[in-house]
Design goal:
mainly alpha, 2 domains
C-alpha cells in the first residue's frame, strides 16, 4: 500500500525552509537536492517522498516566500488610516526588502529576479486593493486597476537611480506626491 505524501509540517517544512536559505545563498542552479538534504539531515529518498523534483520544491519555496511577504505586508497595512501612515509604514518595509534582494541579486539569474519582482507585486495587490477600499479611493475606476497603477508606478519610482540618491524625507514626499497624482486625478 502506497503511503500518502505529507503536505505540511515537520520535515517537509524543514526542507522548504532550508531550500529557501540555500537557493537565496547559492542560487537555484548551484543548490542540489543533496545539499538540501545534507543540511536537513535526511536521505535523498526522503526528498522524493515530499517533492517530485527540485523544480517542484523551488515553486513551493517561491509560493511560501510570497505568502510570508504578503502576510507581513497586510499586517503592516492594517493600521494605515491615511496616505502618510501608508508611506511611513512601507518605506521601512521597502528598505528591508531591498537589503534582502541585494543579497540575492548575484546568485539568482535575472529572469528569476524579474519573475520574483512581478510575483511580489501580484502578492501585494490584494492588500493595496483593501487599503484603497478602506480609503474609499475607487472613484469611477475599478479598485484593481488603481491598485495596479499604484504598485507598478511605485515600483518604477522606488527602483529608479534618482530615488536611491534621495534622503528619507525626500523619498517620503516623492511617494506621497505620486500617490496623490494617481488617486486625486479627476
Amino acid at each position: 500500500m502506497a503511503r500518502k505524501a505529507v503536505l505540511t509540517g515537520g520535515k517537509r517544512d524543514e526542507i522548504i525552509h532550508t531550500a529557501m536559505q540555500l537557493f537565496f545563498e547559492h542560487g537555484y542552479e548551484a543548490t542540489s537536492v543533496r545539499m538540501i538534504m545534507n543540511e536537513v539531515g535526511g536521505e535523498i529518498g526522503m526528498f522524493y517522498h515530499y517533492f517530485k523534483s527540485k523544480d517542484m520544491l523551488f515553486d513551493t519555496v517561491v509560493e511560501r516566500f510570497f505568502l510570508e511577504y504578503r502576510v507581513k505586508f497586510e499586517e503592516a497595512l492594517e493600521a494605515c488610516e491615511t496616505r502618510e501612515d501608508f508611506v511611513k509604514t512601507i518605506m521601512p518595509l521597502y528598505e528591508q526588502s531591498m537589503e534582502s534582494f541585494n543579497m540575492l541579486k548575484g546568485n539568482i539569474h535575472w529572469t528569476i529576479q524579474s519573475s520574483m519582482h512581478v510575483g511580489t507585486l501580484m502578492a501585494l495587490k490584494p492588500a493595496i486593493e483593501s487599503l484603497l477600499e478602506k480609503w474609499q479611493a475607487n472613484d469611477n475606476r475599478p479598485v484593481g486597476i488603481l491598485a495596479g497603477q499604484l504598485l507598478y508606478g511605485l515600483s518604477a519610482t522606488v527602483h529608479s537611480t534618482e530615488f536611491e540618491t534621495m534622503d528619507p524625507p525626500e523619498k517620503e514626499k516623492c511617494v506621497l506626491d505620486f500617490i496623490g497624482r494617481i488617486l486625486d486625478r479627476p
